Amino acid sequence: MKELEIISGKPYRIYIDNNLDKLSTVLEENKINSKMKCFLITDDKVYKLHKDVIEKLKKSLNMELYYFKNGEESKDFHTIEGIYSFLIENNCNRNSLLIALGGGVVGDLVGFVASTFMRGIKYVNIPTTLLSQVDSSVGGKVGYNFKGIKNIIGSFHNPEFVYIGTNFLKTLEKKQFIDGLGEIVKYSLIRDDGMLAYLKENYKGILERENDKLLYLVKGCLKIKKDIIEQDYEDLGIRNILNFGHTVGHGLEITSKENLSHGEAVALGSLVAIRLSEDILKLPKRIYNEVEEVLKKLNLPIKHKVDNYKLFMYAINHDKKNDDSIKFVLLSKIGEPKIKMEVTKEQLYHAIKDSIG
Ligand SMILES: NC(=O)c1ccc[n+]([C@@H]2O[C@H](COP(=O)([O-])OP(=O)(O)OC[C@H]3O[C@@H](n4cnc5c(N)ncnc54)[C@H](O)[C@@H]3O)[C@@H](O)[C@H]2O)c1
């Protein structure tokens, strides 16, 4: 089992393994035992698929279970209200512990409940999707969507620990797995640590979800995320690097009629950002081809027609991460992202036409 320590806000550990065998030891190490009242919160799909894990935990802990309907539509105050009510009905107190078992939606919601219930209680995160294992479970951002705006209500609240079992990824639907790969390609571009070459050489094993490949990718991405959030936990500067590919990605995700997943949209957004980087920061042209080849190998999209350009531009300009002008994260070379790069609408239009369009 590999471990990483995150030292930003309240410090915590990330345990990375291909199974949950050492979870009971980790719980003990963190002083979580049958005397402590625990509340495991998940969604209906994870509950059905991983009932065995939940039953096993129930045997060793004093644990109540709550689950809600899976999917992004559940990431709202209605679900939060349901969790608050459940906690009150079951006498959750300031010494209780919440356990989030699921993807980014479960993690973000449970983390938010933990940050607000009785002015803050403890929680642990056991992420079960590729996206949540390489990204959302670490960094302390928790929250929910409101009035159609993603993650507009939220806070920062670190877990007691994060326990990653890559074997959860074996039950993920193909689309969900590929979704996580989109974020991994982003990581391979913002840091030059050989991950892009690894993706290119090992794509077959990755798509077959071989354990050693999954462990390499999860650990590699989290090391990068750790380094960035430790410098800028509150997302006031350098953490913006993690939004590489996300400005255009966000617009595509909102306007696409083809139902692009987040990771697919980030992959396309990364190609546009690379094209812009060639124009603005003289990024060598060969990188575009190299990334395009990796995306193809990983079954991620490389072409996409913007369905409604007006709505797309509106979505980009109203992205809460932007001020008045369109600001991008661009690359001067692989591993050298530059934040807050100003891009005109004309430059963006031509870059889209000349890349994914
Ligand atoms: N907090 C952060 O820093 C951060 C960063 C990135 C994304 N996010 C958030 O994460 C969310 C997306 O995360 P996600 O893609 O994990 O979404 P998700 O939690 O909705 O999971 C996607 C689907 O996979 C299912 N699932 C989960 N684990 C499974 C498993 N092991 N096997 C089979 N199916 C499984 C879920 O039931 C769901 O249907 C978004 O709401 C996004 O805003 C947060």
From TrEMBL:
Chief site of localization: cytoplasm
Residues annotated for Zn(2+) binding in this entry: 183, 246, 262
Alphabetized SUPFAM superfamilies for the sequence: Dehydroquinate synthase-like
Residue ranges of domain 3-dehydroquinate synthase C-terminal in the record: 180-322
Cofactor binding: number and manner: Binds 1 divalent metal cation per subunit. Can use either Co(2+) or Zn(2+).
UniProt pathway: Metabolic intermediate biosynthesis; chorismate biosynthesis; chorismate from D-erythrose 4-phosphate and phosphoenolpyruvate: step 2/7
Entry-linked InterPro entries: Dehydroquinate_synthase (IPR050071), DHQ_synth_AroB (IPR016037), DHQ_synth_fam (IPR030963), DHQS/DOIS_N (IPR030960), DHQS_C (IPR056179)
Keywords from the named record: Amino-acid biosynthesis, Aromatic amino acid biosynthesis, Cobalt, Cytoplasm, Lyase, Metal-binding, NAD, Nucleotide-binding, Zinc
Keyword 4Fe-4S: no
Cofactor annotation: Co(2+); Zn(2+); NAD(+)
Stored Pfam families: DHQ_synthase, DHQS_C
Localization, UniProt: Cytoplasm
Domain annotation 3-dehydroquinate synthase N-terminal: ranges: 67-178
Similarity comment: family membership: Belongs to the sugar phosphate cyclases superfamily. Dehydroquinate synthase family.
UniProt function note: Catalyzes the conversion of 3-deoxy-D-arabino-heptulosonate 7-phosphate (DAHP) to dehydroquinate (DHQ).
The protein's name: 3-dehydroquinate synthase
